[in-house]
Amino acid sequence: MDKQIVLTGIKPTGMPHIGNYLGAIKPALSLSEKYESRFFIADYHSLNSIKDPGELRGYTYEIAACWLACGLDPERVLFYRQSDVPETFELTTMIMAFTSKGLMNRAHAYKAQLDINREKGKPDDHNINMGLYTYPVLMAADILLFDTNYVPVGRDQVQHIEMAADIAEAVNRNYNESLLTIPEAYVSESTQTVIGMDGRKMSKSYGNTIPLFLPEKQLKKLLNKIVTNSQEVDEPKDPDRCNVFALYKLFATKEEQDVLAARYRAGGMGWGHAKAELFEVMNRTIKPMRDRYDELMADKSYIDDALARGAEKARVLAAAKISRLRKAMGVDR
Ligand code: TRP
């Protein structure tokens, strides 16, 4: 196993969708086979937007169950909850002193809300709490606490990783010592764009997602609502310009794709049939994971135990790091 460390945080904000699974969960799990890996649930990052305790607790279990059901092995991957590692918040305070306000002014998460405010004619600071404003500092602490080399993230998060690197460099420069490892974003090139129900990129903000672990019947119903054109059954159809086929390709073997494509081109096949075929291949992949997900959610003790053990292991590493930093900074005794 490579000694380099991979770490990523997952914000609990609801059930992941098929696009998250193929674009983030699956690639991260395959990285974890090569590198020493640390995956955590960024619950305090969610607190910025989720203020209902039941909702936040529920999302946290959901996201934990999703990752475990998708194959995360907590014996091999350090798996914990951000809120269980208080050293994170001590490091946050430490690096606040090395983070310029100007850097935060440029952060995407903050700027996105600012843009919305301006669009709606609201004051600049409307709906912006300090948690959102300092979001990249907490994220930097998550990363720097564990000597992370690579951070697998979507493109939208790359800027945050660069900020973590800037902050680490500022600390190292001041103490003239490599106290913090400089992290790098890892954006996998092969991230296929997964399209949603309406043919646009699958995204929560478009409301076109297919949640990963919908009950079978609901999944079937949802797939029937995928947008198609209004061609009649007997007309030949073009598989390469069809939302159903685009999704089918992500789950079917090459042979299956060829067979269905031929049926499209031959005519005589209705959209209902194509959607039923899509359900079959999708459900084949998802069913074993969904069964495990349902089991984990029905009795949460496995999740609780896994996260408790993860926290214990994480805190050993975190405490050593904090103690070294305290010494270097002169806040030891
Ligand atoms: N900001 C990330 C997101 O929204 C979640 C996150 C929090 C994270 N802390 C992190 C990702 C540390 C990578 C490393 O997706």
Describe the structure.
The longest helix has 29 residues. With 333 residues, the protein is mostly helical. Helix 8 crosses helix 9, helix 10 runs antiparallel to helix 13 and helix 11 packs across helix 13. Helix 1 links the parallel strand 1 and strand 2. The strands form 2 sheets. Strands 1-2-3 form a 3-stranded parallel β-sheet, sandwiched between helices. A two-stranded parallel ribbon has the order 4-5. It is built from 14 helices and 5 strands. The radius of gyration is 22 Å and the shape is elongated. The site of tryptophan has 12 residues, from strand 1 and helix 8.
Number of helices, where a helix is a run of at least 4 consecutive DSSP H or I residues? 14
- Mean residue pLDDT: 95
The stretches of 5 or more residues where confidence is low (pLDDT under 50) are none
Ions, cofactors, ligands: which are bound?
tryptophan
The chain-level structural class is: mainly alpha
Write the element-wise H/E pattern from the N-terminal end onward.
EHEHHEHHHHHEHEHHHHH
Please indicate the percent range of residues in DSSP E strands (runs of 2 or more). 5-15%
The coarse silhouette is elongated
Strand tally, please?
A: 5
What level of helicity do the residues show?
40-55%
State the end-to-end distance.
38 Å
Main sheet: strands, sense, barrel? 3 strands, parallel
Cross-sheet strand order for the largest sheet: 1-2-3
Rg over CA atoms, rounded to whole Å, is 22 Å
